Amino acid sequence: LAACLARDPSLRIGVVEKFPPPQDSGDFHPSYDARNTALANGTCHIFEQLGVWREMREHAVPIETIEITNKGRFGRAVIRAQEERVRALGYVIENRWIGKVLYRHLQQCANVDFRAPAEVVALRYEADTVLATLDNQQQVRTPLVIIADGAQSHTRQMLGIGATVTDYEQVAIVTAVTPDKPHHNIALERFTDTGPLAILPQTDNRLGLTWCVDKPTADELMAADDATFLRALENAAGEGIGQLEKVGKRFSYPLSLTLAEEQIRPNVVVLGNAAHGLHPVAGQGFNLGLRDAWELGEVIKRVPRAEIGNAAMLARYREGRSPDT
Predict the structure, then answer these.
(1) Which of 92, 48, 79, 51 lies closest to 210 in space, CA to CA?
(2) Which helix (H) or strand (E) covers residue 42, if one does?
(3) Per the omega criterion (within 30 degrees of 0), is the bond before 117 cis?
(4) Pairing state of beta strands 186-192 and 65-70?
(5) Do 145 and 268 form a contact (C-beta atoms < 8 A)?
(6) Looking at the predicted structure, is the pLDDT value of residue 171 above 70?
(7) Cis preceding-peptide flag for 266 (omega within 30 of 0)
(8) 92 near 208, Cβ under 8 Å?
């Protein structure tokens, strides 16, 4: 979001980030753990226009084929980049690299004030602006507060903006596994009785795994030893995955649909997962959030500076995003 906005040199952007920035020594932002993200082609084009894709691409693996199956049923759907006449159907990248590359980019943006670690502790309206108070007692006045701090957004709650939360009654198990044969840049989407299973090609011939299961099954799989876990995964994934030789550390995340009750109000925009946190099936969440950020940047670019945060500008943003969301 900050990178999208920073393209307009007339803007001053303040980023308030709870965690310290990633260090080049190999210490990464706490939220860039074992998770990886499938970047849609449109997302890669946005990163290209921001000037960060070349560096990200060094750590990303193209998806050349997607194979979709339903466990216990015959038939399959296969999508190939070559047939679709695109360079790739998407790219898979570990979240830590997205964070690292974007942070380095922001350090070169003269109009971005990156405050980390820092937190907003209070927000209040003053005339046509919002006054934000940080945890170090500094205050920042702005015509537009953009809330982008995730599905359990503390800042959204601070403004009294509620959210409807629907439990999917599933847990996502996330890890990386190593197969006994080359993955050939194939992604597998497998539907099972307990939820969808996504297997994505990664660097070093690893496969990134997002396995959505019911809660009792998740407890069993998280407690299982590596060999038992790998055999269960082979059984769920079918013959397309081959034999698996190694598994990394497993993480689990309960899944719910979170929809903010307001995505705009005077001088405020709620976007990304704070506006709409959704199931990881088909990997839409991050891509949807980035399109929010890009569209907001484009809307702001087209309005006079005095109109930033006013009702007409915010309505234009909401109308532009409604069909996609």
Answers:
(1) 92
(2) helix 41-50
(3) yes
(4) parallel
(5) yes
(6) yes
(7) no
(8) yes
